[in-house]
């Protein structure tokens, strides 16, 4: 499937990608060329366009960001194992109930990305998790990709599967209450990245985005550039610019409505094993440079992933990026950088639920302030400063 997908991307030989007929002859007249030229009319998201734009703006609202709790059952199991709990549906439900029923969470969180299991789950009292979110004015979202698999013909790189059946699944997710979607693919700098891997990532994201919009879901576009490696920040910038130029090329080719998408990029940082650590101001400078060169202002929101940074690092870097006005809402879509302290506070004990929920509010508020450019790291706990990078991390 990867090879077939890549074959479509060869604009030099594909009539499907091209915007005019390849049956023209070099000696044909101007009138003949006009007659044989294809007319390319943009196909937009149809009846959902206004709703998509409204949803994207709601999620990208001042002082708000996204809580990502879309870990697969296997990854959630690893988190639970870290506090001595078995990976059972009941334990996953208990943890997600703790998160999604946190009082006043909607003051700082505008969207929550759920795993499929969670989208259909309810609290132990029978209230749907989707309804818990709606009561806090939090938009429910859904992870729709099917994970990473090896990409044949590449330099030990991956591609993301999940396009098969995506339209029907998206329609069902919409009926269940989801209003945005997430698809995560990755790019590895130590592995190149190869042109094949970059094009496959960009093409898959574009197809997913078009299918999502066609079914009423705002697509979060996430080509994560992994932290793995010892490369300098300049190399990350170079790769990020290449990746995002490809992504927006294919988003346009697929007639995706830019006003109805959200981005989830990696921050531009040195590799996790690089000898020199960059300051928040340097990371902000390089990241905003990349965004301004590649992201149209029509896009309403940039919701950064934390990618293994410590809770405090992710917040400090976001705050540095919001010290001056940006063309887009620059915010967060954090998983570990919102949940790490929460999980360790909870420890699976009912008597710790309230304290764990307060810990979540502390992190959510900190990142809300960072989105507004008003965060201070004074008083941050040692736990919040611990890095969470894992080499070769998988979801």
Short note summarizing the structure:
The protein is of the alpha/beta class and 395 residues long.
Instruction: Outline the biggest β-sheet.
Output: 8 strands, parallel, barrel
CA distance, first residue to last residue:
22 Å
The number of helices is 14
What sequence of helices (H) and strands (E) makes up the elements?
A: HHHEHHEHHEEEHEHEHEHEHEHH
The structural class is alpha/beta
Low-confidence stretches: 1-41
State the shape.
globular
Radius of gyration (CA) equals 21 Å
Proportion of strand residues? 5-15%
Into which percent range does the helicity of residues fall?
40-55%
Number of strands: 10
Strand order of the largest sheet: 1-2-3-6-7-8-9-10
Mean pLDDT: 88
Write up what this structure looks like.
By secondary structure, the protein is an alpha/beta fold. 42% of the residues lie in helices and 13% in strands. It contains 14 helices and ten strands. Helix 9 crosses helix 10 and helix 12 packs antiparallel against helix 13. The chain is globular and about 50 Å long. The relative contact order is 0.13. The N terminus is likely disordered.
């Amino acid at each position: 499937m990867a090879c077939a997908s890549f074959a479509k991307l060869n604009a030099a030989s594909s009539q499907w990608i091209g915007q005019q007929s390849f049956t023209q002859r070099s000696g044909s007249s101007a009138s003949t060329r006009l007659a044989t030229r294809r007319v390319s009319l943009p196909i937009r998201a149809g009846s959902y366009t206004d709703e998509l734009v409204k949803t994207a703006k709601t999620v990208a609202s001042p002082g708000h960001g996204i809580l990502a709790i879309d870990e697969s059952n296997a990854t959630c199991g690893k988190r639970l194992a870290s506090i001595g709990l078995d990976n059972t549906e009941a334990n996953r439900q208990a943890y997600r109930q703790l998160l999604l029923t946190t009082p006043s969470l909607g003051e700082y969180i505008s969207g929550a990305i759920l795993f499929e299991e969670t989208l259909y789950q309810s609290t132990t009292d029978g209230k749907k998790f989707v309804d818990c979110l709606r009561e806090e004015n939090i938009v429910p979202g859904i992870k729709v990709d099917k994970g990473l698999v090896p990409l044949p013909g590449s330099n030990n790189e991956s591609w993301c599967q999940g396009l098969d059946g995506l339209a029907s699944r998206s329609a069902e997710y919409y009926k269940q209450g989801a209003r945005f979607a997430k698809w995560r693919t990755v790019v590895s700098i130590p592995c190149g990245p190869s042109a094949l891997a970059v094009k496959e990532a960009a093409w898959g994201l574009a197809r997913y985005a078009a299918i999502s919009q066609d079914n009423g879901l705002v697509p979060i576009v996430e080509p994560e550039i992994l932290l793995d490696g010892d490369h300098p920040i300049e190399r990350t910038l170079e790769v990020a610019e290449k990746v995002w130029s490809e992504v927006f090329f294919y988003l346009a080719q697929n007639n995706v409505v830019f006003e109805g998408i959200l981005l989830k990029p990696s921050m531009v940082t040195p590799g996790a094993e690089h000898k020199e650590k960059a300051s928040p101001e340097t990371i902000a400078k390089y990241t905003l440079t990349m965004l301004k060169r590649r992201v149209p202002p029509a896009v309403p929101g940039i919701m950064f992933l934390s990618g293994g940074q410590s809770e405090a690092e992710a917040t400090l870097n976001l705050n540095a990026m919001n010290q001056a006005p940006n063309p887009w809402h620059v915010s967060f879509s954090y998983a570990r950088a919102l949940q790490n302290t929460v999980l360790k506070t909870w420890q699976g004990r009912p008597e710790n639920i309230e304290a764990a929920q307060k810990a979540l509010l502390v992190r959510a508020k900190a990142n809300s302030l960072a989105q507004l450019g008003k965060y201070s790291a004074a008083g941050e706990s040692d736990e919040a400063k611990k890095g969470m990078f894992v080499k070769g991390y998988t979801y």
